[in-house]
Design a protein that fits this description.
By secondary structure, the protein is an alpha/beta fold. It has one domain: Vaccinia Virus protein VP39 (Rossmann fold, 3-Layer(aba) Sandwich), CATH 3.40.50.150. The chain is built from twelve helices and seven strands. It has a seven-stranded mixed β-sheet, with helices on both faces. Strand 2, helix 6 and strand 3 form a beta-alpha-beta unit. The longest helix is centred in the middle third of the chain and has 14 residues. The chain is globular. The N and C termini lie far apart (41 Å).
Length: 256
Amino acid sequence: MSDTQHDYVAGHYGPRASAYVSSAVHSGGPDLDRIAAVLQATRPNRVLDLGCGGGHVSYTAAPFASEVVACDLTPGMLAEVARTAATRGLANIHIEQAAAERLPFPDASFDAVLCRFSLHHWHDPHAGLREARRVIKPDGFAILIDTVAPAHPLLDTHLQAVELLRDPSHVRNMTAAELVSGLAAAGWATTALTPRRMRMDFDGWTARTRTPAVCRAALLHLQAEASVPVRDYFAIGPDGSFDLDAILVEVRPAPL
C-alpha cells in the first residue's frame, strides 16, 4: 500500500507511461507550438520540464536549449522519457526523479521552467509553484499549462467528479483565477495568459489511464445524466466525449 500521495501517483502512472508518450492529446497542440516559439527566440541554457510526464515538453525544448532536465515523480515515466530521447537522438535531455514540492536543485538553477498538464496532480500545488520560483534565475521565465475548472461551482463539481472517477490520482483542477492568484503568491508575475478548449475523446481519455469498467460506466452515467447547463458547457456528446478548458500562463519572477 502507498504511504503517501506521492507514492500513490508514482505507482499509478508507472504502468501507464508509454500511453502518455504516444498520446495524441499530449504530443501536439498550440501550447507546444508556443513553447517552441518562445524557446527559439530566447535560447535558454538550462530548462526544467517540471512534471514531465511523457516528455513532450522536453522533446520540444531540446533543440533550443543546452540542457533540458526532465523531472517527474514517476520512475516509469522517466524511463520512457530517457528511452524516447535516446531514440530521437536528444542527448541533452537528462532525467531527475523528484516531487514538484521538493526539487533537488540549488536556487536560481534554471533559465526556464516549463510545466504542462501536471499541476492538477500535485499534492501541494502552492509549494510546487514556490519551488519553481526558487530554482528560476532572476532573469528567467516560466510557462505553465494546465487544464482548469470553470468558476461556477456547478460546473467545477462536475469536472472534479469525472476527473477523479477517471483517474484516482487526480487532486484538483484549479480555476484560472486560482492559478493566477497562486502564481502571484508564489512570487511570479503573469505576462500573458492564453485560454483554449480541448476535445476529450472518451475512449482515448479513459484508455490512457486504464480506467476500470465500473468507473467507465459511472462516468458515462454522470455524463448522460448531467443537467442541461452542464451538458451545454462541456459540450458532452452521446459517447461521453466533452470539451475541457485549459490555460497557458507565461510568467516571470517577481522581485522577492
